[in-house]
């Protein structure tokens, strides 16, 4: 059985099939349970990690198919420009709060990771990997690549942040009581990337699109900030 | 053919940004440059929304799937993940609250300033 699984997953097509099937299962589970924190991404990834561990299959073997999936991240990032363009009127109308608030939010995000990470005595490489935790995944992975971080730690921090976006950020939204949809939308997107955006969209449409607009801005700002802050860690 | 054309434009913009970065001595990720480039092309109406819309919607709405192999790389670093999980969780919880507050209040006060400026 062990040998069979290793042979099976060494075929890239099989690795893609398994990833798709487990992701589809995650989508099904999400719809069935209606629990916001059961996102198909962590569900599928945890099941793959368990599968690889159980059958003693090397990650690199699975990743022969996996990297074919990851290649699509490049074109997918390019496509983030489309929702930006579709909301061009809202973008133009709120350009100053969008740029300033996401920039301040990103500075707080990056410095809080650096300071808390140093306080906990984490490895430099681990801190660098956590820095892009509130950035959308494809840009975060590019940042980790540039900083020499670990993809696994970056993904862990992003998934935790995203999950917080659905279970914790809605409470922050109630606690802070900022009575402004633009401000709240930007805060949802800046603090918890696409997962926060999905939650903001559930609350109202303007908040959702503001959150969506913040994603690209946070990505670009954090990219630049990360380059600067790595010199001080 | 329509979808293939759209896919060609999108991958073309990505490839173009990779080529640009070969000639520019700046460390910048090709995907982010591609996003900026695509935004400019859409604004200039060089690329029209209908020419990329369907594939873009497919790629962005299913983006979570494309992260699965990267997230599964935790399998390779289980030791370090187990060692750092709790501090990272604390950092994310505290950081998320700080970022939310900072962003919401900044945007709120900026808009108030702008409204005052207009009056």
How would you describe the overall organization of this protein?
The complex is a heterodimer of chains A (233) and B (119). Chain A contains 14 helices and no strands. Chain A has 233 residues and is an all-alpha fold. Chain A folds into two domains: 70 residues, no CATH class; 154 residues, no CATH class. The radius of gyration of chain A is 19 Å and the shape is globular. The model of chain A has no long low-confidence stretch (mean pLDDT 92). Chain B is an all-alpha fold. Chain B folds into two domains: 66 residues, no CATH class; 44 residues. Chain B is built from six helices and no strands. In chain B, helix 1 packs across helix 2 and helix 1 packs across helix 3. Chain B is extended, with a radius of gyration of 21 Å. The chains are: A mainly alpha (233), B mainly alpha (119). At the A-B interface, helix 2, helix 3, helix 4, helix 5 and helix 6 of A face helix 1, helix 2, helix 3, helix 4 and helix 5 of B.
């Amino acid at each position: 059985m062990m040998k069979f699984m290793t042979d099976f997953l060494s075929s890239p097509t099989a690795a893609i099939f398994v990833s798709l099937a487990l992701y589809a299962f995650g989508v099904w589970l999400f719809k069935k349970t209606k629990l916001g924190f059961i996102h198909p991404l962590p569900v599928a990834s945890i099941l793959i990690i368990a599968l690889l561990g159980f059958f003693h299959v090397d990650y690199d073997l699975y990743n022969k198919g996996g990297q074919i999936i990851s290649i699509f991240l490049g074109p997918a990032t390019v496509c983030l420009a489309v929702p930006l363009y579709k909301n061009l009127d809202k973008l133009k109308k709120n350009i100053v709060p969008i740029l300033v608030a996401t920039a301040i939010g990103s500075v707080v995000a990056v410095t809080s990771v650096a300071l808390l990470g140093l306080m906990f005595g984490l490895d430099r490489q681990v801190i660098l990997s956590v820095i892009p935790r509130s950035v959308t995944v494809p840009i975060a992975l590019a940042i980790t690549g540039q900083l020499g971080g670990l993809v696994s730690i970056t993904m862990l921090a992003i998934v935790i942040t995203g999950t917080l976006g659905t279970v914790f950020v809605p409470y922050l939204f109630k606690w802070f009581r900022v009575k402004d949809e633009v401000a709240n939308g930007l805060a949802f997107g800046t603090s918890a990337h696409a997962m926060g955006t999905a939650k903001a969209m559930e609350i109202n449409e303007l908040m959702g699109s503001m959150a969506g607009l913040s994603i690209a801005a946070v990505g670009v700002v954090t990219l630049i900030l990360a380059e600067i802050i790595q010199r001080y860690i | 053919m329509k979808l293939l054309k759209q896919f060609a434009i999108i991958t073309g913009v990505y490839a173009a940004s990779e080529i640009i970065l070969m000639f520019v001595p700046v460390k910048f990720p090709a995907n982010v440059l591609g996003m900026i480039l695509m935004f400019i092309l859409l604004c200039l109406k060089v690329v029209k929304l209908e020419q990329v819309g369907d594939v873009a919607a497919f790629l962005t709405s299913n983006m979570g799937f494309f992260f699965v192999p990267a997230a599964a790389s935790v399998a390779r670093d289980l030791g370090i993940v187990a060692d750092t999980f709790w501090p990272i969780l604390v950092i994310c919880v505290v950081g998320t609250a700080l970022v939310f507050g900072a962003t919401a209040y900044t945007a709120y006060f900026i808009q108030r300033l702008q409204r005052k400026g207009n009056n």
